[in-house]
Amino acid sequence: xxxxxxxxxxxxxxxxxxxxxxxxxxxxxxxxxxxxxxxxxxxxxxxxxxxxxxxxxxxxxxxxxxxxxxxxxxxxxxxxxxxxxxxxxxxxxxxxxxxxxxxxxxxxxxxxxxxxxxxxxxxxxxxxxxxxxxxxxxxxxxxxxxxxxxxxxxxxxxxxxxxxxxxxxxxxxxxxxxxxxxxxxxxxxxxxxxxxxxxxxxxxxxxxxxxxxxxxxxxxxxxxxxxxxxxxxxxxxxxxxxxxxxxxxxxxxxxxxxxxxxx
Length: 263
Fold this sequence. Notes:
Layout: E1 4-13, E2 16-26, E3 31-35, H1 42-49, E4 57-62, E5 65-66, E6 80-82, H2 95-104, H3 112-121, H4 137-149, E7 155-159, H5 167-183, E8 187-191, H6 195-201, E9 204-209, E10 212-217, H7 219-223, H8 226-233
Parallel strand pairs: 3-8, 3-9, 6-7, 7-8
Antiparallel strand pairs: 1-2, 1-4, 4-5, 9-10
Helix pairs in contact: 2-4, 3-4, 5-6
């Protein structure tokens, strides 16, 4: 049995089908990539898994139990943590305080020593008492990752962690994700547009296009799949359907528990 099972999930925003019968698994201990062109539904799938959205049909199982029967604030307590494509930090609070809130979302307390240990893992122990807003964008992404890790998740959802990083930093990130997978005994579901990163660290890759899963397999199998090549490069016979943007979700500082301290 897979650790995470997304089963035939459909989600509509009015007349727009954002997810159309999507199914995929993440095995225990696996780094699984979730890729696709912009608007494919990748972040929407994350929002369904973490209960920011309720699908119209289908189910999401974590360790065999439905997450859809849980309120959003309990998802992190079940062992699912995430980061966001757009950073969500308590900007007036210190780096350390942001990380401590991640543990609070799990329904447990973490001492300063534990939080500092996680900050050391992400290379930020020396910036623990700085306000989060004072840090560069790339450093803030590491704060958000530390906040997710301190919740001690079993499944970590990473939404475009390489955004804003340079080529050298992207390479370092790949090695870092593999290291925390081992050190924290994690399974990882990764949404990312840097294909070299995804293909170099993923055990399995799922590909989405316009709300549907169009392929899955090993990185080598996916890269050779004609449907994947067409989705990314297009073809003369293929006309992109018109889609509208779904309504925005206001993920604010007032609801850290919903995602496990934005986890």
